[in-house]
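Quarterly update, task 2.4: magnesium ion-bound model.
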Amino acid sequence: MANEATPAATVAPGVKPGRLWIGGEYVDAQDGATFTITNPATGEALTTCAQAGAADVDRAVAAAKAAFRATAWAQMSALDRQRILWNIGERMMARLDEFAAAETLCNGKPIFESKYIDVPDAAKCFQYYAGWATKIAGQTLPLSTGPFLNYTRREPLGVIGAIVAWNFPILLASWKIAPALAAGNTVVLKPAEFTPLTALLLAECAKEAGLPDGVLNVIPGRGSVAGQALVTHPDVAKIAFTGSTEVGKGIVRASVDTVKKVQMELGGKSANVIFADADVDAAVRGAAGGIFYGKGEVCAAGSRLLVERSIHDAVVEKLAERAQKTPPGDPMNPKTRLGAQVRESHLQTILGYVEKGKSEGATLVAGGSRAAIDGKGAFMQATVFSGVTNAMTIAREEIFGPVLAVIPFDSEDEAIAIANDSVYGLAAGVWTRDIKRGHRAAHRLEAGTVWINAYNRYDTATPFGGYKQSGFGRDMGPDALDGYLQTKSVWVDLSEDKA
Ligand code: NAP
Ligand code: MG
């Protein structure tokens, strides 16, 4: 909320109030606006943060444009860019505990995930793209007209506006920033309002690593204000977005007037398919991890579990047991595997879907209720529904919580048909011991990522993104780098001068 009273002191060690990071330094919003960051595990204020308005977006874009134009970054030697990107990763790991605590306190995810997965993977992302900075090259193309020399150059786009969701704050930010910088662009990042702190720590690390001022700017603020101003800004060349399909559609519409390039990483309702010939215990572990990991607030969550009928009842029983053995706990406790949902309001949405599931005739076999730690917090039990049909709301809409919908099937064709019957196409899983069936299914599934006998695996080297309404463009891998480059064709006349 703008201008509300600042709560007393920062409650967690190492968590500083957030400000805007523009031109290599912390600044306040021009109108002095701030908002409160809440810890979802307690419902209490954690700290405050400056809130960017349209004037601040202008300042940040101007800083990024100047840094791009001043050629401090785009024209820096590729080896220097490589070294700086690598060092950003090193600086992040040197401050691992600080990053992990800030991430968990804002988001509610288990500290285990922040410390051992999200922050190290974000650091690795910078180190992966460090390697690419020195390997961006054009081509020399043989022409059928002549005599000419023609070659292509791979050039950066300019100022990138990155807008990301709250579910993997530092990872999503790094997936945009690292390839954008490796390609020679400058960046203005708008983190989600719930979770801006780790992006600010990243900006500090980037400066420590030698990134020139203005190359990376971070502007916490509301999507409808700061986000919108970034999307419509004439000096922003591309919007790289991760968030809901609904907001993504609005951004695509708003990008038209300035003919911005857009990359959309959107929602999902991913199908995880267990065939009767699978290693059932491994599949059940994968299915549980696929929905309970990250409290189910994972775009690629395996939220629809398709199970071949002959093993259906056994799988449901094992899943219910696993759900009961995965109680929510204090996210700062290293043993916790199910943290707090990001906000009370989001928990209410999840509980609304549970009611909808019951009223549409699904059978609740585990969980289904909220929980509390010391009487506080936005905690949700690990929840499993069986008897779900693909027409039910809980099988069609993204719940974004630890709620699994189990759907039986009788044949491979039926499984593929159900899996593909969704407006989304982000990810899918296949569990089988038949190598031919595994690949066959992977090829037929309409999804940007398919795991065979695994779920929720990611690596910076391999692209991640959606089919259908899960979006277009890719994060990570060589594809992401490509999305931050444009090709220039250069012609040289080689004909002899005629007197
Ligand atoms: P969201 O509501 O769409 O918000 C995403 C970002 O957009 C936030 O920074 C938000 O700011 C901003 N925003 C909101 N309205 C805007 C507008 N009119 N113009 C510009 N920016 C605007 O999504 P969320 O609730 O944070 O995240 C959950 C969604 O993200 C899920 O659907 C999930 O599947 C998706 N997701 C996709 C991927 C992927 O890689 N495909 C990865 C992670 C998450 P504020 O939050 O500050 O308002
Ligand atoms: Mg939202």
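Highlight for this quarter: The chain has two domains: 20-266+471-486, 271-464.
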